[in-house]
Amino acid sequence: MAKVDMHVHSKYSEHPSEWFLQRLGAAESYTDPYDLYAIMKKRGMDFVTITDHNRIDGALLLKEAHPDEVIVGIEATTYFPEDSCKIHILIYGLNEEQYRNIQNLRINIYKLQEYLVRENLVHAVAHPTYSVNGKLNIVHLEKLMLLFNHYEGINGGRNSLHNEGWMNIVRHLTPQHIEELSRKHGIEPIGDKPWIKGIIGGSDDHAALFMGQTYTMATAQTPEQFLEEVRNRRTQVSGRHNNFQAFIFTLYKIAWEFYRSKGGALSKNLIDRLGASLFENRSLRLWERWKIRRIKADVYTSNVEFQSKLQEFVDILNEQGNDDIEERLQSLYNKLADLVDSFFAILFYSFEKDIANGNLLKIVRNLASAIPGVFLTLPFFSSIMHLYKGRNMLHELQNRFGCTGDSSSKRILWFTDTLDDLNGVSMTLTRVLEISRKKNYPITVVSSQKNRDDDAHYMNLPQVYSFDLPFYESYHICVPSILKAIDRIYIYRPDKIIISTPGPVGLLGLLIAKMMQVECVGVYHTDFTAQASSIQDDEGLGGLIEDLTTRFYQMMSEVRVPTNAYIELLVNRGIDRDKMKFFPRGLETELFSPRKHSRTYLQHEYKLQEGFYMLYTGRISRDKDLDIILYAFHILEKQFPNIYLLMAGDGPHKKDFQAHYRSKRIIWLGRIKRETLPDIYSGCDLMLFPSTTDTFGMSVLEAQACGLPALVSNQGGPKEIIIDGRSGYVMSDSFPESWKDMIEKFINWKTEDPEALRKMRIESRENALKKVSWDRFFECFMA
Hints:
With 783 residues, this protein is α/β, with parallel strands linked by helices. The chain has 31 helices and 24 strands.
């Protein structure tokens, strides 16, 4: 089959549409038509065309030199007259008179289309979902479906999302769709069977980097036969889609060629030498390599790792013998990512040290020194935004034509800063991972953790830096590599992003969701405002954290909240009520269920005498209000010699509590394995959960499922888990004396009215079964 790259540009194109090149003053392309021809033939193209913007000069030159191999083409800029929305139309086989007529008519897309049909010129809509001047909407796309029967299916300048998404839409068109659109817009569809569309492919190359790597195939021996096959919709397309690295380097090459075209001293400067090394595979001279190594801030001069990464970057530029530009660009990107990582690692280290020392002057200086690192990453952010521009419009159009697939096929990334810590977020997402693996749900948890390996449902991002969160020593926060993370996530192509934490990993998830125009769902697990105020007793700190977290969640398209109480609280903090939805919790009720012989297990494992056993499970931290139950127990143990308080968990203030509350009947169990927890719950008599900062309280739900009644605070989420007076009690205040009095009632009930406690255990189990469902949990996030 004959191959033709049907969309390519030369130096004869009109001014560029990309804002970067417009601001620079550069041309659309600097590729000579004869060089273009040579590259096309080298890459296996049977026939060659040039589709410059509104010009045919280059195509005519090649047609004169190679009349039997060249197809004269043009990419005409046309407009919807009703709102001046720009559309690009690829036109082939035209002569100079037809070109002049097209130039006169292209100001109006309807008149241009009538002329192309009348002249029987082969034509196709270029990159249909790309908004050239920011005005394209679904109405325009619907009209294009009626006006034209050929489209660019693979455009080498667009990513696979847009290319494949548009081809999926046109393949699902039916006579009914066309009839409905015709009635809606009052436009008569063109030609025979207008629901069957022809597809072409082209590289849309502007920089002689990827031409001939995206193409159209048809059975033909001559250019005329090839165009006839296109006209009759008997073509296939193949080749590469664009990615954000290639997009930005294409712009860089055009910019480099622009500087080189200026001549004189500019063509001999370092920018020219770097461009020659990267794009022409020419070796750098010794003095040029030395000059590059000198380009660094003084703060990094003595850093060995930074020096090493900079040297590796220079070495990649100086490599010879690799003609695969895509592979070369990927290698350069990887080394650039290493260099940026080293840059930010030094910066974060300096920040941490200067904040600890209170050196505000150095903090300001470090912020200024961060500018080069940010500058290196920003072009890649903007390139992703460019490639994903219009994604929401495409998705809405796919919905209208019923070709989005079911929700189970969505690729979901779930971002979290904590996965191995002792907290509700980690426990929930650990279980999400387990169930996703077991049932093969399309969910991948994204984090940055040491000693964890990737699998189909977990993505471990490389770390740049890590530190212990102030006041939360059990939280180890990791800062991921931005460029390496973006590269991996871009390849994954998520359809939805879920974020559980507002830390570095969560912020990265939010950034990527905005860049890729992906639905972003926030899960409100933790009340950091209340926790910070409880630990530090600092209203200023709590207010700052509240402002930051509110802004974070307000940027989500949806916020999932575990309790109604927290929905009201977050509304008061400034998050739109319309954004918030309740999400059900999941629990393995087969695992968390009453167990026989658990009492004997506790007595044997922890050397306990028979008596009344109270239990707390969770993080051992001041924000959990543990002084309430520890002080209450301190009073009760003087009155009741056979009571025990079991403290299961670990945390930053465990040693402080142990030192302050010394008692042989307070048993510090440490961190308990998940499969052992049901024995602990089942063997105890009462759960104590005094925390006022928990948004939900998973351990309370686990206890209830094991038939353990609970006392909980009247603030936060746990009060919505129990049935007050039937599966436990909601305490009206946080005074230790009140908790002591209620605990004493339970102690007396055990000997005086054991039947009441037995009924409360049954009620606890039944209550938990009504509240949990992993199926509903996954349904709400996968919808």
